[in-house]
Amino acid sequence: MTTMLSSDLPLTKIGRGKVRDIYAVDDDRLLLVTTDRISAFDVVMGETIPMKGAVLTQVSAFWFGQLGGVVPHHMISADIDKIIAAVPALQGHRAALAGRTMLCRRTTVFPIECVIRGYITGSAWKEYAASGTLAGEKLAEGLKESERLDPPIFSPATKAETGHDENITIARMREIIGDEAAYTLESMTRAIYTQGEQVAREQGIIIADTKFEFGRDKDGRIILIDEVMTPDSSRFWAADTYAPGRSQPSFDKQPLRDYLDAERRGGRWNGEAPPPTLPAEIVEATSKRYLDAYRRLTGADLVVT
What is the pTM of this model? Predict the structure, then answer.
């Protein structure tokens, strides 16, 4: 499978994120193409990570299959042959699109990242350690880093086009999207996380935290969209090595973050674009980390045909 930095398809491109290219198929459908681009510290790297786009797409497809009875979602298909049959204009692009492409229902997207935290880590831990709060709201005293939160904390954030998303209170979320939608998004977020955390734990993975996006379809239904419980949108920890009171190794781009941290500490990178060139061993280690997450979660190797 060849790597992809950017896509060029005979459809109208309506969006380009750090990782995904979004195309309009018609008034009701979108095509999501997950490239092998990778970002860290809000900077997109110049190199691609082999198989990353396929891992993100197929992990999401796995979860959409698991969640069909829990919440409605936007996936129509992640099978390239079914997608080409539905969108014949893609006929000559099969090799480039296989594994990394999803045909989806179009929605009007809520401007909210629905973050749920089953364990206190990352930015939540940093805020708590400094002030005992999360998004300005008090948490219980005496929590340790990486400690389990029971019940999990729903922690919405505003979506940022550039830079970091900003944690907000649920009250602020209600002001932005209304009480009814806010209640529905929190309820759906909790239901998805409960199901996902249980399935992942059976495979030896802890989903420490994750984030979801939602939109309204043409019939006014609120549905789950975008990626779901992937290594990019979640923290995956190995259950057999988990121990509270310290940070945990995760199945994501940690090799890349560690390399970039070393470059910053050594004064070789200022943290802004352009990023440093990535050594081949960092690219390979990061690719292996993504593939390992897929294998552990689904119980099978990722095969793209």
Answer: 0.94
Q: CA angle 141-254-185, nearest 5°?
A: 55
- How far is it, in rounded angstroms, from Cα 20 to Cα 104? 13
Q: At what angle do helices 280-298 and 52-67 cross, to 10 degrees?
A: 20
CATH classification number, 109-241, choose in 3.90.1150.10, 1.10.10.10, 1.10.132.30, 3.30.470.20: 3.30.470.20
The full set of domain ranges for the chain reads: 12-107, 109-241
Please give the Cα distance from 227 to 212 (Å, whole number). 7
In whole angstroms, what is the distance from residue 169 CA to residue 155 CA?
A: 7
The string of pLDDT tens digits covering residues 226-285 is 999 999 999 999 999 999 999 998 888 888 989 999 999 999 999 999 999 999 999 999
pLDDT (tens digit, 9 = 90+) per residue, 92-118? 999 999 999 999 999 999 999 999 999
CA distance 121 to 210: 11
What is the separation of C-alpha 65 from the centre of its chain, rounded to a whole number of angstroms? 17
Which numeric CATH code is attached to 12-107?
A: 3.30.200.20
Encoded amino acid at 90, one letter = L
Residue 258 tokens, joined = 């560690």
